[in-house]
Amino acid sequence: MDTPPASRATERDRLIAADLFSGECTSRHLLSHVTSKWGVLVLVALHEGDRRWSELVRTIEGISEKMLAQTLRTLEGDGLVLRDARPVVPPYVVYRLTDAGREAADLLLPLLHWVGERTAEAEREPEAAEKSGAAEEAGSASPSGGTEEG
């Protein structure tokens, strides 16, 4: 469903008023942190509940320990993630979303749902194209059983 042009203009006007399109806009830093590949995945993983370091590493396949540490520090600095380090041996650290982090994750979840749907469609399209291509090839056969050549 397309957004009516008037609604798009209103939304764009709001963004311009917030100065998001300006290269100098300080909110771009937060935008880049929240929408980075690892930022999105960390926020969504924590949306499911509090997690320890090792749980995040297992949940977010492919993230290096260095990148996880950097992403968690960044999101903590942005006020989206809380790090709860308990004074015990061995160290026990739990990460959780702040209210702002939960709000950001709530907004990201529909986007990830959309991405999943589009990815599934794209994966089905080559199969449909192959079937369509086979049907076209069969339809281009001449009545004598050979194929037409141009």
Automatic annotation (TrEMBL):
Keywords: DNA-binding, Transcription, Transcription regulation. Residues 25-123 form the HTH hxlR-type domain. Residues 120-134 have a biased composition (Basic and acidic residues). Residues 120-150 are annotated as: Disordered. InterPro entries: HTH_HxlR, WH-like_DNA-bd_sf, WH_DNA-bd_sf. Residues 135-150 have a biased composition (Low complexity). The keyword DNA-binding applies. PROSITE patterns: HTH_HXLR. This is Helix-turn-helix transcriptional regulator. It comes from Nocardiopsis coralli.
